[in-house]
Write a structure and sequence with these properties.
mainly alpha; 4 helices; globular
Length: about 100
Amino acid sequence: MKTNIGIIVLFIFMILSSITAAWDFFENDKHSYLDIVTFLAGLSVFTFFLVTYKQFLTITIISNLLIVISAILHGILNKSFHLMHHVVRIVLLFLVYILLLS
C-alpha cells in the first residue's frame, strides 16, 4: 500500500515538473536548456511501464536529481533562488523514496 502511494506521488511530482518546464519554455522568449532537461527528466516516470521496478527506481532517482539540480540552477541564473523551497522539495522526494523502498 505504501509503495502504491509513493508511486502515485512520484508520478504526480514528475508530471507536474514536466508540465511546468514545458510551460516555462514556451512562455519565455529566452528558451532555457534547463527547461528541456527538466521536461525530459519528468517524462522518464513513464518508464514504469517498460522496465523492472528496480530499474524504474534507479531511473527516477537520477531523473529527480536532474530536476532538482535544474531547478536550483534555474533559480540561481534568474536571481530568484529560494533555498527553503528547494530544501522542502528535496525532503519530500526523500520521503517518497523511503516509502518506495520500504
